[in-house]
Amino acid sequence: MRGKDGEDMRKEVVMPRVGMQIMTATVEKWHKNVGDMVEEREPLLIISSSMGKVELCSLLSGRLTEVVVGESEETEVGSVIAWIE
Q1: Which residues, in sequence order, are CB contacts of 5 under 8 Å at separation 6+?
Q2: Using an 8 Å Cβ cutoff, are 64 and 84 in contact?
Q3: Is 5 or 13 the better-scoring residue by pLDDT?
Q4: What Cα–Cα distance (Å) separates residue 21 from each residue in 4, 15, 31, 36, 51?
Q5: For 14-54, what is each residue's pLDDT tens digit?
Q6: Neighbouring-strand partners of residue 80
Q7: What does the alpha-carbon distance between residue 64 and residue 66 come to, in Å, rounded to a whole number?
Q8: How far apart are CA 14 and CA 63, in angstroms?
Q9: What pLDDT does 60 receive?
Q10: What domains lie within the chain, and their CATH numbers?
């Protein structure tokens, strides 16, 4: 979705770095579905890496509009895993 000035209103959710040597992580479980509202600091998903499992909280508030990386999928640190509007 675009705002009045044509700017994309969506904000990206990226796979965080969970350790200095970790370059990839796997999405274990999404706590929210596309269309759900998300509050800042609310648990959003669980990821796993060679260091173990970590529950991640949202850094944004809004509606989860797209999940790019599904459950059981591995992706690189820094890649977009979802969009919140």
Answers
A1: none
A2: yes
A3: 13
A4: 42, 14, 27, 33, 10
A5: 999 888 888 999 999 999 999 999 999 999 999 999 889 99
A6: 14
A7: 6
A8: 16
A9: 95
A10: 11-84 (2.40.50.100)
